[in-house]
Fold this sequence. Notes:
By secondary structure, the chain is mostly beta strands. It has one helix at 88-92; strands at 2-8, 23-29, 32-35, 47-55, 65-72, 79-87. The chain has a four-stranded antiparallel beta sheet with strand order 3-2-5-6. It has a two-stranded antiparallel ribbon with strand order 1-4. Strand 5 (65-72) and strand 6 (79-87) form a beta hairpin. The two termini are 25 Å apart.
Amino acid sequence: xxxxxxxxxxxxxxxxxxxxxxxxxxxxxxxxxxxxxxxxxxxxxxxxxxxxxxxxxxxxxxxxxxxxxxxxxxxxxxxxxxxxxxxxxxxxxxxxxxxxxxxxxx
Length: 106
């Protein structure tokens, strides 16, 4: 089981022309999706309040990239803000016990 703690984002593209966007994080690994809570009016500098998202790691998917994506929640269809792909092997070797911080610029 991989637990990803989401903290914050900065300098995001603003996907809403007339109001502040409502961003959320989604983790995707093959057919699994873990969706975080929406930050209402989070704008371009949302604080995700250390929300933990879980993805199950198996023998079949451990070598696949983990997609970390940000979306703006909207009625009808959510807007894509950005993404990064992370190798799971690199994540598990960050520090003793597999704990560590990853910063990525989308």
